Structures are given as C-alpha cells and as structure tokens.
Amino acid sequence: MQKMLIQLDVEKIERENKYNIQEIWNLIDEIFSKGECIKEVQGDGSVMYYGNPKRGNYLADFGLAYLLLQKRDWFVDNAKTWTWYDNDDNESLPFQDTDCLKRVMGFK
Q1: By the number of CB atoms within 10 A of the CB, which of 6, 19, 36, 53 ranks highest?
Q2: pLDDT digits over 13-38, tens only?
C-alpha cells in the first residue's frame, strides 16, 4: 500500500498572506484525484492520501504526485509535513516512511 501524509503550515500561510489555503488544498487534491486516491482529513488538519485498492498498482499515482509537488514552490515553501509511506503492497510488512520535504529541501 502507498499513502502520503501532508500538513500545511497554516500559520505561515496566513501570516504571509501570499496564498489562499483552500486553493492550495484544491490543487493538491486535484493532483491526487488523477489517481483516484482516497483522501482522509486527520484531526490535526493534515491529510492522508491512500492508494485506491480498486486501481491495483497505484505506485505511479504517488510517484506522479511526488514529482508534481516537489516542483511547486507554493507547496514546498508552505508544507509542514510531507511523508510518503510504503510497504511494498504487502500488508504484513510495516510501512517504510520517506520524509519528502527533507529530501526536496536538501536539493534546494
């Protein structure tokens, strides 16, 4: 299974008043909707996107989301958490997590 956790830095976005939070979420949702990913809003306001089991191999959906988001300053500069979880589609294995934000910021 693949899943990705995203949390925006709401305080920073509101303070800078450069972007609209809802518009950012709409753009992120649009990226994940291409793969028909399942969206689950968490209690802290972050969002977990899950691969849609009806689509079978959804690794490409998350790879595409990663590639698109890493190139968007409106996302990278305002993300607080961006973690990709993967267990190689073996539910008996624990998830391995990748801190995408740390990885992308290392290249900036």
Answers
A1: 6
A2: 999 999 999 999 999 999 998 878 99
44: helix, coil or strand? coil
Look up the pTM and report it: 0.89
Buried b (16+ CB within 10 A) or exposed e, 14-32: eeeeebeeeebbeebeebb
Q: Give which of 44, 34, 37, 41 is closest to 1, Cα–Cα.
A: 37
**For the CA atoms of the chain, what is the radius of gyration?**
14
Q: Could you read off the pLDDT of 65-93 as tens digits, one per residue?
A: 999 999 999 999 999 999 999 876 666 66
Q: What is the C-alpha separation between 107 and 13, in angstroms, rounded?
A: 23
